[in-house]
């Protein structure tokens, strides 16, 4: 038959050179796995875990037992904090070795050094609803995707824009581009606005393009449209690194 959890965790040869069973998953193990999430369900090999459900923590419990009690269709076991062995450096800001349901035996005389965990902390896992967890993960991915993309702004100017308004718009444009944003500048006619000759309109376009060069921004594709009618400039800024 299967060995008990206690025999798996403490049997002869169960510990490796780390001083604890290799079945326990530490933060370093997760980092080495190069996954962008913590272990879940049968990926959790720890013999014992603490379990968070409906706001309360229970344990340490046999992982095999916890998995056997799950409704496989609707529930999932997710690790939210990995195993911390006795003697590991205390995380900054913690008052004690156990920051919420670590489990393990009380500190013995001659135990771990000050500044290190006085007892092992079993991994903290949570029982979640699979559908709710799926929706949360989708939201997380969408947020990550959105934050990775440069934000886009559209700025409208008329060919007959006044000097004061132009300076204001150029300052705004500089602010957007300095943040690495994409900006679509739309130049167009204003109904009932004063007429502007071709030379003045070309001068306005050159001035905007000089400003783009000054800001180390770039035109991501050639301008669309024509001078005097509707013209679109497609710009992208570059975030300057702090030196």
UniProtKB/TrEMBL annotation:
Q: Locations of Low complexity compositional bias?
A: 106-115
Keywords in alphabetical order = Initiation factor, Protein biosynthesis
Which is a Gene Ontology cellular component entry for this protein?
mitochondrion
Per UniProt, what is one GO molecular function of this protein? ribosome binding
GO BP term (any one): ribosome disassembly
Give a yes or no for keyword Protein biosynthesis in this entry.
yes
Q: Which residues form a coiled coil?
A: none
Q: Which Gene3D superfamilies match?
A: Translation initiation factor 3 (IF-3), C-terminal domain (3.30.110.10)
Source organism superkingdom: Eukaryota
**A Pfam family name for this chain?**
IF3_C
Q: Where is this region: Disordered?
A: 1-22, 85-118
Domain (Translation initiation factor 3 C-terminal): residue spans on this chain:
151-235
The similarity comment for this entry is: Belongs to the IF-3 family.
Q: What is this protein called?
A: Translation initiation factor 3 C-terminal domain-containing protein
